Amino acid sequence: MASTAKEWEFTMPKKQIRTEKDLQHFLSSDTHNSFVQFIVSLNESVKGKPLGVECLVTERIQSIVDLLGTLSTWVDEIPPATQQMRYGNTAFRTWQERLANSVIDLSSSVLPENLKDATIELAPYLLESFGNGVRIDYGTGHETNFIAWLYCLSCLGVITEADQYAVVSKVFLAYLGLMRKVQTTYWLEPAGSHGVWGLDDYQFIPFIWGSAQLVGHKHITPKSIHNEEVLLGYSGQYLYLGCVSFVKEVKKGPLQETSPMLTDISAVHNWEKVNNGMIKMYKAEVLSKIPIMQHFLFGSILAFS
Fold first, then answer.
1. Are 162 and 56 in contact (CB under 8 A)?
2. Residue 274 maps to which CATH number?
3. 251-281 pLDDT, tens per residue?
4. Is residue 132 part of a domain?
5. For residue 132, what are the domain limits?
6. DSSP secondary structure string, 109-164?
7. Is residue 35 a contact partner of residue 145, using CB atoms and an 8 Å limit?
8. Which residues pair with 189 in a beta bridge?
9. SS3 at position 231
Protein backbone atom coordinates (compact mmCIF):
# COMPACT_ATOMS: atom_id res chain seq x y z
CA MET A 1 0.00 0.00 0.00
CA ALA A 2 1.41 3.36 -1.02
CA SER A 3 2.33 5.93 1.60
CA THR A 4 0.59 9.26 1.76
CA ALA A 5 2.43 12.52 1.25
CA LYS A 6 1.47 13.58 4.80
CA GLU A 7 3.89 10.99 6.22
CA TRP A 8 6.84 12.69 4.53
CA GLU A 9 8.32 16.15 4.29
CA PHE A 10 9.80 15.90 0.82
CA THR A 11 12.87 17.97 0.06
CA MET A 12 15.30 18.55 -2.77
CA PRO A 13 18.07 15.95 -2.16
CA LYS A 14 21.64 17.18 -1.97
CA LYS A 15 25.21 15.94 -1.68
CA GLN A 16 26.39 15.29 1.88
CA ILE A 17 29.59 13.24 1.60
CA ARG A 18 32.69 15.40 1.34
CA THR A 19 35.18 13.83 3.75
CA GLU A 20 36.17 10.38 4.97
CA LYS A 21 34.30 11.16 8.19
CA ASP A 22 31.11 11.86 6.21
CA LEU A 23 31.55 8.58 4.35
CA GLN A 24 32.04 6.61 7.56
CA HIS A 25 28.91 8.26 8.97
CA PHE A 26 26.96 7.01 5.96
CA LEU A 27 28.47 3.51 6.07
CA SER A 28 27.45 3.07 9.71
CA SER A 29 23.95 4.47 9.19
CA ASP A 30 20.53 2.82 9.00
CA THR A 31 20.18 4.41 5.55
CA HIS A 32 23.19 2.48 4.23
CA ASN A 33 21.96 -0.76 5.77
CA SER A 34 18.46 -0.27 4.38
CA PHE A 35 19.77 0.58 0.91
CA VAL A 36 21.99 -2.53 0.85
CA GLN A 37 19.07 -4.63 2.11
CA PHE A 38 16.95 -3.35 -0.80
CA ILE A 39 19.60 -4.58 -3.25
CA VAL A 40 19.86 -7.91 -1.39
CA SER A 41 16.07 -8.37 -1.38
CA LEU A 42 15.98 -7.90 -5.14
CA ASN A 43 18.92 -10.30 -5.34
CA GLU A 44 16.90 -12.94 -3.47
CA SER A 45 13.86 -12.40 -5.69
CA VAL A 46 15.75 -13.57 -8.80
CA LYS A 47 17.88 -16.29 -7.22
CA GLY A 48 17.80 -19.37 -9.43
CA LYS A 49 15.44 -17.75 -11.94
CA PRO A 50 15.99 -16.77 -15.60
CA LEU A 51 14.57 -13.49 -16.89
CA GLY A 52 11.62 -15.00 -18.74
CA VAL A 53 9.64 -16.27 -15.74
CA GLU A 54 6.02 -15.14 -15.98
CA CYS A 55 5.26 -12.53 -13.34
CA LEU A 56 2.78 -9.87 -12.30
CA VAL A 57 3.49 -6.54 -13.99
CA THR A 58 1.53 -3.84 -12.19
CA GLU A 59 0.49 -0.53 -13.68
CA ARG A 60 3.29 1.18 -11.72
CA ILE A 61 5.95 -1.22 -12.97
CA GLN A 62 4.71 -0.79 -16.53
CA SER A 63 4.80 3.00 -16.16
CA ILE A 64 8.51 2.80 -15.23
CA VAL A 65 9.23 0.50 -18.19
CA ASP A 66 7.35 2.94 -20.44
CA LEU A 67 9.39 5.86 -19.06
CA LEU A 68 12.61 4.05 -19.98
CA GLY A 69 11.13 3.27 -23.39
CA THR A 70 10.55 6.99 -23.93
CA LEU A 71 14.19 7.72 -23.15
CA SER A 72 15.20 5.02 -25.62
CA THR A 73 13.19 6.64 -28.43
CA TRP A 74 15.04 9.89 -27.73
CA VAL A 75 18.30 8.13 -28.64
CA ASP A 76 16.75 7.30 -32.02
CA GLU A 77 15.62 10.92 -32.43
CA ILE A 78 19.01 12.38 -31.46
CA PRO A 79 21.65 10.73 -33.69
CA PRO A 80 25.34 10.97 -32.81
CA ALA A 81 27.12 14.07 -34.05
CA THR A 82 29.77 13.75 -36.75
CA GLN A 83 33.13 14.12 -35.03
CA GLN A 84 36.65 12.73 -35.16
CA MET A 85 36.73 11.38 -31.60
CA ARG A 86 34.96 8.07 -31.08
CA TYR A 87 34.33 8.61 -27.37
CA GLY A 88 32.35 11.47 -25.87
CA ASN A 89 29.89 12.22 -28.67
CA THR A 90 28.51 15.71 -28.08
CA ALA A 91 24.98 14.71 -29.15
CA PHE A 92 24.67 13.12 -25.70
CA ARG A 93 24.46 16.65 -24.28
CA THR A 94 21.33 17.24 -26.37
CA TRP A 95 19.86 14.00 -25.02
CA GLN A 96 20.70 15.07 -21.46
CA GLU A 97 19.17 18.52 -22.01
CA ARG A 98 15.92 16.91 -23.10
CA LEU A 99 16.05 14.72 -20.00
CA ALA A 100 16.66 17.73 -17.73
CA ASN A 101 13.72 19.57 -19.29
CA SER A 102 11.42 16.56 -18.89
CA VAL A 103 12.59 14.92 -15.66
CA ILE A 104 9.90 16.47 -13.44
CA ASP A 105 7.10 15.18 -15.65
CA LEU A 106 8.82 11.82 -16.09
CA SER A 107 9.25 11.27 -12.36
CA SER A 108 5.72 12.45 -11.65
CA SER A 109 4.31 10.02 -14.22
CA VAL A 110 5.12 6.96 -12.09
CA LEU A 111 3.64 8.38 -8.87
CA PRO A 112 0.02 8.08 -7.71
CA GLU A 113 -1.89 11.32 -7.14
CA ASN A 114 -1.39 11.25 -3.37
CA LEU A 115 2.40 11.17 -3.81
CA LYS A 116 2.93 13.73 -6.57
CA ASP A 117 4.64 15.99 -4.02
CA ALA A 118 7.49 13.46 -3.89
CA THR A 119 8.53 14.50 -7.40
CA ILE A 120 10.81 17.23 -6.02
CA GLU A 121 12.82 14.56 -4.19
CA LEU A 122 12.74 11.77 -6.78
CA ALA A 123 13.48 13.74 -9.95
CA PRO A 124 17.15 14.53 -9.10
CA TYR A 125 17.93 10.81 -8.66
CA LEU A 126 16.39 10.07 -12.04
CA LEU A 127 18.32 12.92 -13.65
CA GLU A 128 21.60 11.53 -12.30
CA SER A 129 20.86 7.96 -13.43
CA PHE A 130 21.96 8.15 -17.05
CA GLY A 131 25.37 9.80 -17.07
CA ASN A 132 26.89 13.28 -16.98
CA GLY A 133 26.24 15.59 -19.93
CA VAL A 134 29.18 17.89 -19.22
CA ARG A 135 31.81 15.15 -18.99
CA ILE A 136 29.88 12.85 -21.36
CA ASP A 137 30.54 9.91 -19.07
CA TYR A 138 28.67 7.17 -17.24
CA GLY A 139 29.60 4.74 -14.49
CA THR A 140 28.55 2.82 -11.40
CA GLY A 141 27.70 6.03 -9.53
CA HIS A 142 25.02 6.84 -12.09
CA GLU A 143 23.77 3.25 -11.92
CA THR A 144 23.60 3.60 -8.12
CA ASN A 145 21.44 6.70 -8.52
CA PHE A 146 18.95 4.66 -10.54
CA ILE A 147 18.87 2.04 -7.77
CA ALA A 148 18.37 4.92 -5.29
CA TRP A 149 15.40 6.14 -7.36
CA LEU A 150 13.88 2.65 -7.22
CA TYR A 151 14.65 2.48 -3.49
CA CYS A 152 12.75 5.71 -2.91
CA LEU A 153 9.78 4.36 -4.88
CA SER A 154 9.93 1.26 -2.69
CA CYS A 155 10.01 3.29 0.53
CA LEU A 156 6.93 5.17 -0.67
CA GLY A 157 5.12 1.91 -1.40
CA VAL A 158 4.94 2.56 -5.14
CA ILE A 159 7.04 -0.58 -5.62
CA THR A 160 6.04 -3.45 -3.33
CA GLU A 161 7.58 -6.76 -2.29
CA ALA A 162 5.35 -8.51 -4.84
CA ASP A 163 7.01 -6.42 -7.58
CA GLN A 164 10.59 -7.41 -6.78
CA TYR A 165 11.13 -9.99 -9.51
CA ALA A 166 9.58 -7.62 -12.07
CA VAL A 167 11.82 -4.77 -10.85
CA VAL A 168 14.82 -6.83 -11.94
CA SER A 169 13.42 -8.73 -14.93
CA LYS A 170 11.41 -5.86 -16.45
CA VAL A 171 12.54 -2.50 -15.05
CA PHE A 172 16.27 -3.05 -14.58
CA LEU A 173 16.49 -5.03 -17.81
CA ALA A 174 14.95 -2.06 -19.64
CA TYR A 175 17.38 0.33 -17.90
CA LEU A 176 20.34 -1.86 -18.82
CA GLY A 177 19.20 -2.06 -22.43
CA LEU A 178 18.79 1.71 -22.54
CA MET A 179 22.24 2.37 -21.11
CA ARG A 180 23.90 -0.04 -23.54
CA LYS A 181 22.12 1.76 -26.37
CA VAL A 182 23.24 5.15 -25.01
CA GLN A 183 26.82 3.90 -24.50
CA THR A 184 27.18 2.48 -28.00
CA THR A 185 25.45 5.44 -29.68
CA TYR A 186 27.25 8.29 -27.93
CA TRP A 187 30.28 6.33 -26.66
CA LEU A 188 30.28 7.77 -23.16
CA GLU A 189 33.58 7.81 -21.33
CA PRO A 190 33.64 5.34 -18.42
CA ALA A 191 33.33 7.32 -15.18
CA GLY A 192 35.88 6.14 -12.63
CA SER A 193 36.85 3.14 -14.75
CA HIS A 194 39.29 0.58 -13.38
CA GLY A 195 40.26 -0.22 -16.96
CA VAL A 196 41.01 -3.90 -17.48
CA TRP A 197 40.96 -4.39 -13.70
CA GLY A 198 37.25 -3.65 -13.43
CA LEU A 199 34.25 -5.93 -13.94
CA ASP A 200 32.85 -3.66 -16.62
CA ASP A 201 33.60 -0.03 -17.41
CA TYR A 202 30.00 0.97 -16.78
CA GLN A 203 27.84 -1.43 -14.75
CA PHE A 204 28.04 -3.39 -11.50
CA ILE A 205 24.51 -4.28 -10.37
CA PRO A 206 23.75 -6.79 -13.18
CA PHE A 207 26.76 -8.83 -12.06
CA ILE A 208 25.18 -9.08 -8.60
CA TRP A 209 21.66 -10.00 -9.67
CA GLY A 210 22.95 -11.95 -12.66
CA SER A 211 25.10 -14.22 -10.50
CA ALA A 212 22.09 -14.73 -8.19
CA GLN A 213 20.04 -15.94 -11.16
CA LEU A 214 22.59 -18.68 -11.84
CA VAL A 215 22.76 -20.02 -8.27
CA GLY A 216 22.01 -23.73 -8.39
CA HIS A 217 22.02 -23.97 -12.18
CA LYS A 218 22.65 -27.59 -13.18
CA HIS A 219 24.82 -26.92 -16.21
CA ILE A 220 26.08 -23.33 -16.26
CA THR A 221 29.05 -22.81 -13.95
CA PRO A 222 31.22 -19.71 -13.44
CA LYS A 223 33.74 -21.05 -15.97
CA SER A 224 30.94 -21.29 -18.58
CA ILE A 225 31.56 -17.62 -19.46
CA HIS A 226 34.35 -18.91 -21.70
CA ASN A 227 31.93 -21.10 -23.66
CA GLU A 228 30.62 -19.27 -26.74
CA GLU A 229 27.65 -21.64 -27.10
CA VAL A 230 26.53 -20.88 -23.54
CA LEU A 231 26.86 -17.13 -24.12
CA LEU A 232 24.93 -17.31 -27.39
CA GLY A 233 22.21 -19.51 -25.94
CA TYR A 234 21.68 -17.95 -22.52
CA SER A 235 22.75 -14.27 -22.57
CA GLY A 236 19.14 -13.23 -23.04
CA GLN A 237 18.04 -15.18 -19.97
CA TYR A 238 20.78 -14.37 -17.47
CA LEU A 239 22.07 -10.87 -16.75
CA TYR A 240 25.58 -12.05 -15.88
CA LEU A 241 26.04 -13.82 -19.20
CA GLY A 242 24.56 -10.83 -21.00
CA CYS A 243 27.15 -8.62 -19.31
CA VAL A 244 30.00 -10.88 -20.38
CA SER A 245 28.69 -10.91 -23.96
CA PHE A 246 28.48 -7.10 -23.96
CA VAL A 247 32.02 -6.77 -22.59
CA LYS A 248 33.28 -9.08 -25.34
CA GLU A 249 31.40 -7.06 -27.95
CA VAL A 250 32.72 -3.68 -26.79
CA LYS A 251 36.24 -4.67 -25.72
CA LYS A 252 37.84 -6.41 -28.65
CA GLY A 253 40.27 -9.18 -27.75
CA PRO A 254 40.42 -12.28 -25.52
CA LEU A 255 38.47 -11.99 -22.26
CA GLN A 256 41.59 -12.98 -20.31
CA GLU A 257 43.30 -9.81 -21.57
CA THR A 258 40.41 -7.32 -21.65
CA SER A 259 38.74 -8.45 -18.39
CA PRO A 260 41.17 -10.38 -16.17
CA MET A 261 38.93 -9.84 -13.14
CA LEU A 262 36.01 -11.60 -14.83
CA THR A 263 38.41 -14.36 -15.82
CA ASP A 264 39.63 -14.70 -12.21
CA ILE A 265 36.05 -14.86 -10.92
CA SER A 266 35.27 -17.63 -13.41
CA ALA A 267 37.59 -19.89 -11.39
CA VAL A 268 35.32 -19.62 -8.32
CA HIS A 269 33.69 -22.96 -7.55
CA ASN A 270 30.00 -21.98 -7.58
CA TRP A 271 27.59 -19.11 -8.22
CA GLU A 272 26.65 -18.74 -4.54
CA LYS A 273 30.23 -17.74 -3.76
CA VAL A 274 30.34 -15.45 -6.80
CA ASN A 275 27.09 -13.80 -5.72
CA ASN A 276 28.21 -13.23 -2.13
CA GLY A 277 31.52 -11.87 -3.41
CA MET A 278 29.76 -9.47 -5.78
CA ILE A 279 27.67 -7.99 -2.96
CA LYS A 280 30.79 -7.52 -0.81
CA MET A 281 32.65 -5.98 -3.75
CA TYR A 282 29.81 -3.54 -4.47
CA LYS A 283 29.83 -2.36 -0.85
CA ALA A 284 33.63 -1.97 -0.93
CA GLU A 285 34.20 -0.61 -4.45
CA VAL A 286 31.12 1.56 -4.93
CA LEU A 287 29.38 2.46 -1.66
CA SER A 288 32.69 2.89 0.22
CA LYS A 289 34.49 5.08 -2.31
CA ILE A 290 34.49 8.88 -1.87
CA PRO A 291 35.02 9.61 -5.61
CA ILE A 292 31.67 7.89 -6.24
CA MET A 293 29.72 8.68 -3.09
CA GLN A 294 30.63 12.39 -3.05
CA HIS A 295 28.04 12.73 -5.83
CA PHE A 296 25.35 10.72 -4.02
CA LEU A 297 22.18 12.55 -3.01
CA PHE A 298 20.40 12.53 0.34
CA GLY A 299 16.92 13.81 1.19
CA SER A 300 14.07 12.83 3.49
CA ILE A 301 13.80 9.26 2.13
CA LEU A 302 17.48 8.44 1.71
CA ALA A 303 18.38 10.40 4.82
CA PHE A 304 21.96 11.29 5.74
CA SER A 305 21.34 11.90 9.44
1. yes
2. 1.20.120.1150
3. 888 888 888 899 999 999 999 999 999 999 9
4. yes
5. 15-298
6. HTS-GGGGGGHHHHHHHHHTTS-BTTTTEE-HHHHHHHHHHHHHHHHTTSS-GGGH
7. no
8. 137
9. helix
